[in-house]
Design a protein that fits this description.
There is one protein chain. This protein has helices at 15-42, 49-58, 66-71, 73-89. By secondary structure, it is mainly α. The protein has one domain (15-89). 5% of the residues are buried.
């Protein structure tokens, strides 16, 4: 866990704070593994856990479909750019 997630410093000093951080890290670890397994099943690409975790960290603020992005990154980004451009133009009626 310390290798993939930044648990070198705990945010709290008491036992409850440390337990909460460990549980959150375990849940995040499980969710990243589920996303990695789904992406690996759809196409024969084998992603490493660290790469998937890094991509999730980078795309937390975007509305991109993560599984589609992991299966075919170029195609997913082109579709995302077209969708955002259409949504931005549809913001105000002309």
């Amino acid at each position: 866990m310390k290798q993939n997630f930044q648990l070198s410093n705990f945010l709290g000093d008491n036992q409850n704070a440390i337990k909460i951080q460990l549980w959150c890290t375990l849940i995040a670890d499980l969710l990243v593994k589920i996303v990695k397994d789904k992406a690996d099943k759809q196409k024969n690409n084998k992603w490493s856990f660290a790469n998937v975790a890094g991509l999730i960290r980078q795309h937390l603020g975007t509305y991109i479909d993560l599984i589609k992005f992991l299966v075919n990154p170029e195609k997913a980004l082109i579709g995302y750019q077209i969708e955002t451009r259409n949504n931005q133009l549809a913001l105000f009626k002309t």
